[in-house]
Amino acid sequence: MLKVLCWFSLLLILLPCAIGTGLGYAHGWPTSWRKANWSSSGVLPPARASRDATVILLASRTGQWKSIFAEHMSIVVKPGGAEHWVRYDVVGWGNPVRKDAYAADAYWYGNAPRVIYRLDGPEAARLIPRIEASIARYPHGARGTYTVWPGPNSNTFVSWVVRNTEGFHAELPPVAVGKDWLGWAGIAPAPSKTGYTVSLAGLFGGTLAAEEGIELHLLGSTIGIDINDIAIKLPALGKLGVLDVLRNRTL
User: Fold this and answer.
1) 141, 76 contact by CB (below 8 A)
2) For the segment 68-77, what is each residue's pLDDT rounded down to a tens digit?
3) pLDDT digits (tens, 9 = 90+) for 89-122
4) Is 182:188 a contact under the CB 8 Å cutoff?
5) Any bridge partners for residue 118, and if so which?
6) 145-164 core/surface letters (b: 16 or more CB in 10 A; e: else)
7) Around Cβ 219, how many Cβ atoms within 10 Å?
């Protein structure tokens, strides 16, 4: 049993973290938040380019050494016919919940965001008021409630809004540390609404769901198998899908 535990720790925790650390140092990062790039990345088109209502979730690596292990998520919405995107984030200083504190598709500590969820059209139009109502009642929006690890943090915010908004279901990235924080102990629908998550202080727990697959949560990191997408989930490295690898080879 001890031998199995050692191999488990080496192959599924220590090795991915070592690779992630190497990749992080090779990429480099700004020495401070003041020197980081927070401007628009150009990932999103101008809001006026489409008349449709749109809901988007963005994720980008966090700053400095934290970028080895974690991503930051944000919510971006645009009502039908609107001229501007509206962005919601949670940060670790002042009032945590921020509206339009950054460009809709801003770099985060110099790291470009990627779209992890997008919904357009009438369904998005119906969803936006519900999302904004959930944001208004987020239970950890007071000063001093933010905790970078294990939560509640910026990813706890996005995950809570997804979980607590009718019609909002999205599979969130495994390296969004804090997404599985449910208080000291809790059980809640998985963000995809296709299964459930259990958590003990955000440090230990798991998810079993059709979309997320089977996940083991250890100290905020995720180890899992996603049969639906033929992928594995590892600390620091995130979701590694066979289909994604094949698709990249053919581009």
Assistant:
1) no
2) 999 999 999 9
3) 999 999 999 999 999 999 999 999 999 999 999 9
4) yes
5) 56
6) bbeeebbbbbbbbbbbbbbb
7) 13
